[in-house]
Amino acid sequence: MKVSLTIAERISLFEALPQQGSILTLRTITALREQLAFTDKERQVWKIEQKETPQGLMMVWDFDFNKVEVEFDINDATKGLIYVSLEKLSNDGQLRMEMISLYEKFVEGKKSNEVVESVR
């Protein structure tokens, strides 16, 4: 599955993924984090950096992040993991506003069995 993600969506996806699970889940998450990580060129061109704010450490950048998208090729197993993670956050009432576009891209309009089967 090819999917275009904004910088904000990439950051939100990092936060949506589980921090614990089976070894297979953790290896899938590690590979996805590496795939979505900001390149040196992205950090330089978009002036991406971490800054200390009153709310804590935050990523900041110098551009209109809603319009800048990068295309990624997400395999079926990873897509299934993202689906399950976002669906769980929604069902638990933990989905945040900045994750809505991710939910729309990865969950809405998908058949649960079709996506979940790709995880097994």
Q: How much helix, percentage-wise, in residues?
A: 40-55%
Largest pleated sheet: 2 strands, antiparallel
Q: What is the overall number of helices?
A: 6
Structural class computed from helices and strand pairing: alpha+beta
Number of domains: 1
Q: How many beta-strand elements?
A: 4
Low-confidence stretches: 111-120
Alpha-carbon distance between the two ends: 17 Å
Rg on CA atoms, Å: 15 Å
What spatial form do the alpha-carbon principal axes imply?
A: globular
**What is the average per-residue confidence, as pLDDT, rounded to a whole number?**
86
| Beta fraction | 15-25%
Describe the strand arrangement of the main beta sheet, using strand numbers: 1-4
N to C succession of SSEs: EHHHEEEHHH
Describe the structure.
The chain is of the alpha+beta class and 120 residues long. It has one domain (2-119). It is 51% helix and 17% strand. The chain is built from six helices and four strands. The protein has helices at 7-16, 23-36, 40-45, 76-91, 100-106, 112-119; strands at 2-6, 49-53, 56-60, 69-73. The strands form two sheets. A two-stranded antiparallel sheet has the order 1-4. A two-stranded antiparallel ribbon has the order 2-3. A hairpin with a 2-residue loop joins strand 2 (49-53) and strand 3. It is globular and about 35 Å long. Mean pLDDT is 86; it is low at 111-120.
Short description:
The chain has 120 residues and is of the alpha+beta class. The protein has helices at residues 7-16, 23-36, 40-45, 76-91, 100-106, 112-119; strands spanning 2-6, 49-53, 56-60, 69-73.
